TrEMBL record:
Keyword Calcium: no
Record's function text: May play the central regulatory role in sporulation. It may be an element of the effector pathway responsible for the activation of sporulation genes in response to nutritional stress. Spo0A may act in concert with spo0H (a sigma factor) to control the expression of some genes that are critical to the sporulation process.
Domain Response regulatory: 5-120
Residues annotated with 4-aspartylphosphate modification: 55
Identification of the protein by name: Stage 0 sporulation protein A homolog
């Protein structure tokens, strides 16, 4: 990642000194400071920073007005709020003002550095994810089967084609958030799900609801473990999984997602076949906030 030029906006000399020390020690290039709207416009025009740390309360103005002024000069300049105040309303307003992130004072140097690096992560980070995610998800799935069933399925028919999915009966869909957004689908026939659930429970599932809950939790463990493994390789990804959504029944079709990179495969297990489909987008995912 290139050197990041940072402008500090704060009306407190004490806070400016603290942030300057923290940012400099973390390897960022502090190129200026501003204490008012007029100084913000002047300094942004003069130094053209890559990123601005923005206090919320400033004489005669606030962080939102200053952010709008910055983006009139250059919409590509990233702004993160660094403020003692933080609540849901402020966060909502910050998102609407195209602020990239929010962190509360007093700042932790490691958290601030991580937030800035995530916000500023460039094409190289996405290419890293693109290169590793399919192998990591395959490894995570094999680990889950091995731990739960003491079996190792075979992964076949691997493809990077982004196609619509015709469900075999049960489709579990999970969103992935973080630096980049993504989606995971785990699909199987009822017979496969019942065979797997029966082995795990050591009895037949009591109901279709119990069966679906078990498959949902397997998908949750699969996606969660894979995302954790990716985050260990590079914490800038910050991937998280959303709660699963389950579709089941006959003639279920899931249209192809608007994803820039996809991976699909058939998982041949002793319980029956399953299909996995994972994909990510290059664009920004979850709004970055450290609370």
């Amino acid at each position: 990642m290139k050197d990041v030029k940072v402008l500090i906006v704060d009306d407190s000399p004490f806070q400016i000194a603290l942030l300057t020390d923290v940012l400099t020690e973390s390897g960022f290039d502090v190129v200026g400071e501003a204490k008012s709207l007029e100084e913000v416009i002047e300094e942004v025009t003069r130094v053209r920073p890559d990123l601005v740390t923005m206090d919320m309360t400033l004489p005669g103005t606030d962080g939102f007005e200053c952010t709008r002024a910055i983006h009139k000069i250059d919409k590509d300049i990233k702004v993160i709020i660094v403020s003692s105040m933080m609540d849901d309303e402020l966060v909502r307003k910050a998102k609407k003002t195209h602020v990239c992130g929010y962190i509360q004072k007093p700042v932790d140097s490691e958290e601030l550095s991580l937030l800035i690096n995530r916000v500023m992560a460039d094409e190289e980070l996405y290419l890293e994810l693109e290169k590793l995610y399919s192998d990591v998800f395959k490894e995570a799935l094999l680990n889950i089967f091995n731990k739960l069933t003491k079996t190792v399925p075979e992964i076949t028919d691997e493809s990077n084609d982004n196609i619509a999915i015709h469900s075999e009966g049960i489709s579990i869909v999970m969103g992935i958030t973080g630096k980049y957004s993504g989606r995971l689908i785990l699909d199987m026939a009822y017979e496969t799900a019942k065979s797997l659930a029966t082995m795990l429970l050591k009895r037949d599932p009591k109901s279709s609801e119990e069966l679906l809950n078990i498959m949902s939790e397997i998908a949750n463990m699969f996606a969660g473990n894979a995302c954790s493994m990716i985050n260990k390789k590079n914490k800038l990804f910050g991937l998280r999984v959303a709660p699963p959504t389950i579709f089941h029944g006959e003639s279920i079709n899931i249209s192809k997602a608007e994803l820039e990179n996809t991976f699909s495969a058939i998982v041949k297990s002793q319980f029956g076949n399953l299909t996995i489909n994972i994909g990510f987008n290059r664009g920004e995912g979850e709004w970055m906030s450290i609370i």
